[in-house]
Write a structure and sequence with these properties.
alpha+beta; single chain; 3 helices; six-stranded antiparallel beta sheet; Immunoglobulin-like; four-stranded mixed beta sheet
Length: about 325
């Protein structure tokens, strides 16, 4: 958490997670109150109290977001109930949620007021405090992950660049994140994830990684915040076999690839298990294991008509016509 001043020396990064659907102000008023209190803590409190009081500021901030999410969830329930109840459910839930929201807001307002009074007493804040040092610009969370084919197959090391729409020049500019104490571009972590806190406006994200086609997100309008900007990338590399494994007892041979292959290309005409002693193909059936969309898989299995000989040595061939999910053929390998 930090402050943001016009001089750019401090930035208070607070994620306003939802709009208030009732007064149209979002969480702005409560966050402004916290900004004012935080300013007084920084100016007037003894150094040993500052971290303690800042922790309570963070606690209240999270409570603001939680309350708004609760109200937002109730309002969505009313919208869903509307068609089934000819609008009666929507109206009833709106009235109930509005009343419940007022109760939440009132309780939170009392907490913030008590906290403000406590800071005034503990830190000897003058009756007319100096002009606040901060001019907060609220910033919000766009985040997500990058994957290949399936959402479980996350991509690490993807260069993600936040682009902000410039109304004056009518073009997308690379966002200058330094002023906000952040980095742009970012590189996705081991879970394929990335995240920024950005000001309101129009945004999109560009993704780049060697061996993959570049990708872009759809245009994002902030607010509201976006927590699910999850983007697939398509590899331009062939699918390479990385592991050959025979099942105990010779009942199967598994081939594992480093990326998905087209399930439609898996057949006995493109794969073969050969007995070197005879030079003949071992009869059996080739299948995909755990196929995903369009039957693609990273796992191919050969089941022989009869178990392979224990201790025997066999060769496995993969034909060059076998394609990755993106239609990229591999080199012939054995």
């Amino acid at each position: 958490m930090a402050f943001a001043s016009k001089a750019g020396e401090n930035t208070w990064k607070v994620a306003d997670a939802a709009y208030s659907l009732y007064d149209g102000r979002g969480t702005g008023d409560s966050l402004d109150d916290l900004a004012y209190i935080m300013d007084k803590i920084a100016r007037y409190c003894p150094p040993n109290l500052i971290p303690i009081e800042m922790e309570y500021v963070e606690l209240l901030r999270k409570k603001i977001i939680r309350n708004e999410l609760i109200k937002y969830g109730i309002s969505i329930a009313g919208t869903v109930a509307g068609p089934a109840t000819f609008g009666v459910g929507t109206v009833a839930l709106f009235i109930a949620s509005n009343a419940f929201g007022k109760v939440l807001d009132a309780g939170l307002a009392r907490q913030i007021t008590r906290f403000n009074d406590d800071i005034n007493d503990l830190c000897n804040v003058p009756k007319k405090p100096k002009k606040p040092i901060a001019d907060p610009e609220w910033i919000y969370d766009p985040s997500g992950y990058v994957y290949e084919v399936t959402e479980e197959n996350r991509l690490e090391g993807v260069k993600a660049t936040a682009l902000r729409w410039n109304e004056e020049t009518r073009r997308w500019d690379v966002w200058d994140a330094d002023w906000y104490g952040q980095e742009n571009p970012l590189y996705t972590d081991a879970d394929g994830r990335y995240a920024w806190d950005v000001p309101e406006g129009k945004w999109k994200v560009r993704y780049e990684k060697e061996g993959y086609l570049p990708a872009e997100s759809e245009e994002l309008t902030v607010l509201p915040p976006h927590f699910d900007v999850n983007i697939p990338m398509i590899s331009t590399l062939p699918a390479k076999p990385v592991k050959f494994e025979a099942a105990p007892g010779g009942g199967a041979v598994d081939i594992l690839f480093d990326r998905h292959v087209k399930g439609s290309t898996v057949s006995g005409s493109l794969f073969a298990v050969v007995d070197p002693a005879t030079g003949a193909d071992v009869p059996g059936v080739w299948t995909v294991v755990s196929p995903v969309s369009e039957g693609n898989s990273m796992h191919i299995r050969f089941t022989p008509d009869a178990p392979l000989e224990a201790g025997g040595v066999y060769k496995v061939y993969v034909d060059g016509a076998v394609q990755s999910y993106a239609g990229i053929p591999p080199r012939r390998c054995a």
